[in-house]
What we know:
The complex is a heterodimer of chains A (104) and B (707). With 104 residues, chain A is mostly helical. Chain A has helices at residues 4-23, 27-54, 61-91. In chain A, α1 (4-23) packs antiparallel against α2 (27-54) and α2 packs antiparallel against α3 (61-91). Chain A is elongated and about 55 Å long. By secondary structure, chain B is mainly alpha-helical. Helix content of chain B is 72%, strand content 2%. In chain B, β1 and β2 (123-130) form a beta hairpin. Chain B starts with 6 loop residues before the first helix and ends with a helix. Chain A binds chain B through residues 18, 21-23, 30, 96-97, 99-104, and chain B through 678, 681-686, 689-690, 693.
Amino acid sequence: MAAVYPLIFAALLFCVGVYGVLSRRNAVLVLMSVEIMLASVTINLVTFGEIAKARGDVLLTGQVFALFVLAVGAAEVGVGLALVLLLYRNRASVNIDEADLMKY
Amino acid sequence: MSDYAWLIPALPAVSAALIVFFGKRLPKGGAEVGIAAIGLAFLLSVGVAVQVFSANVAAVAQVPHAEEEARAGTEVAGLGAPGGLLAAAAEPEEETIEIPAGVSAFVRERSVQLTPFGGQYGFEAGIRVDGLAAMMFLLVCFVSLLVQIYSTSYMQGDPRYTWYFALLSMFTASMLLLVIGNNLMLVLMGWELVGICSYLLIGFWWEEKANSDAAIKAFLTTHLGDVGLMVGVITMWSLFATFNIGEIIAAVQAGTQAGGAALDTGLLTFGLIALFIGAIGKSAQFPLHTWLPDAMAGPTPVSALIHAATMVTAGIFLVARLYPVFSASATAMAVVAVIGTITLFMAGLLAVVQDDVKRVLAYSTISQLGYMIAALAFSYTAGIFHLFTHGFFKALLFLGAGSLIHAVHSNNMSDMGGLRKFMPWTFWTFLVGSLALAAIPPLAGFWSKDEVLAGGLEAGGYTGWLLVVLGSLGGMITAFYMTRVMWLVFAGEFRGHGHPHESPAAMKWPLAVLAVPAAVMGFFNLPFGTLHSRGFAAWTLFDLEYFTNHEAHFFLPMALGTTLLAGVGIVVGTKLYRQVPEREPMLELGPVSGVLVNKFYLDRLSTDLIVRTLVRTKLANAAYWLNDHVLDRTVFLLGVGTAKLGRGTYTYADQRGIDGTVNGLAGGAGFLGREVFRKFQSGNVQLYAGGMFAGVFLLAVLFATAT
């Protein structure tokens, strides 16, 4: 089935995003990796929407949901960048290894 | 009325408790509570007596033969019984009289089953009201009431006045419990309770060592007998599997024992003699009589109540209570007769040499108790009738003696004399009591003592003749020593110190009231046919069969003979003591005096030989050694062992085991938190996120494999 390619692509993209979140030191890059994960999930939604359409769904639910996710993702990036900006203002650095005030 | 009979012992018991707790705050120190309670109990007992006695008379009237016998008896008496003595003695045994169906003597039993340990181990607590119990209620309540009134004056100003009245109430309650109990366990309880009250009252003035010694002696001596009583009660249980007196009597009359087997007469005799040993102790019979004269150490009203009228008659009451059972064993009855006869004669002789007026009366009491015991061996009615009359006139004599002691502050007759003009009330009432005791007709003592001797004469046999001969001689001795007391106390010049005076009203009136029954009580049981079956003999029976087969007899020659002997006693006494002799003639009889003064060496036997030689040297040392080396050692080792065990438990089980576990758990948790789990809280967001992803991955794998 042709749908398996976008799904595998989305899974790989998700893994790239996870790797980025866990390995980058720069908060901006971490935020970008999160966005990559979100994008992979959006691809998933579109793919499942196509599958549903093939089975008779006329409302294009998956595609519509993808649009919502993009909108919410934009808002989330706004919040995330604001957090990074504040972090930078307070510490003159965006290295998240140094932002460990909540340790023991 | 008899349904409320349980109130009779309950009232004084309640008053005893009230006096103990509130007596000191009351205006009369608790005496009024005791007197009110016993007064109510006396009224109740009169009501019970009226009901029981009239029911019994009605029952007797329905037995046809008793009426015929009665008429025949009247004729014999009317003829003056020519040669009656021999004729009666030779008379063949009367035939058994059939009792009409449905007619029986009055017996009311009510009981409750107490099962504190579950249904299997029940204990019956109940009352048995019959003629005998009703008679005892009357006697105990009446004497107790008068003694308590008397005591308000006699004990005035005593530091333990309230406690004294509490004890009197407690004693009265115990005695009534003993009387009312319908099974041997209750009787035993009452028996022990009167024993402890007697002990407390004899030693009432315990500041003097002699008094507390006397109390201990009385307690131990009577308890020697109580061992026998317990053995007897247990034997009765083993025979009949019941403590209920009515059931025991029924079983004996049916000739069966528990399980329906034929009665084991050998075991029954053993049990009865064991019971009688209890009676020997309590009723001061030979050879356990030695405690009673010493018991005079107590206050005199106590002697009147406990050691003359009531407690010492408990033994007689016990034998009377089980009379049909005792009748079943000729051997037991012979023992009863012989012990009683020995006691009555021996104690009478001892009374002759005493100087202490209370001791004279004490020995006289022992002697009269001997008459009762011996009488019971032959005739139920004679025994308890003598108990009844003796209760009144001996209480009268003791209260009179108390009045004398109150006046001259001494127990000794050598400190009295000439008191007739100082104390006329005491004199006249004492005279009535003495004449009644000396069995001078027509006072109460004559009729009851005559019935005792007539019972012995009619029964015949060696025990019967022993009672007749020694009993008649005992009557002479009684008359002699009472004459001696009368002359020494009331005639001549006053030999004591100070100015004697008549006692106050609270002491005079009880004397006067007691003098009435002492004088006239005999007329309630005249031994003449119809009167007999209407009077005391019918009132107090609880077993018709026995009564109808034991007619009363009156033997004029014997009555005349005993009166003559009493007269001889009086004349001899008057001759010797009219002028107060320089030296006591009774102490001038050579070896005889020595024997009498030393009480037949019976006290020596028990104190010197048994106590000193055997108990104090051998037994006491053995007991000491046993105590020191075995008991103490065991206790010591046990103690040390326990201490060691405790210490071990503390060190190992508690400190190391339990505390160690708790501390270890806490320490472990602390270590984990401090050294291990702390590391996870790094504050590194990526580490947390990594953990989260790992967890999600793990869950995903788990779900995948699960489906």
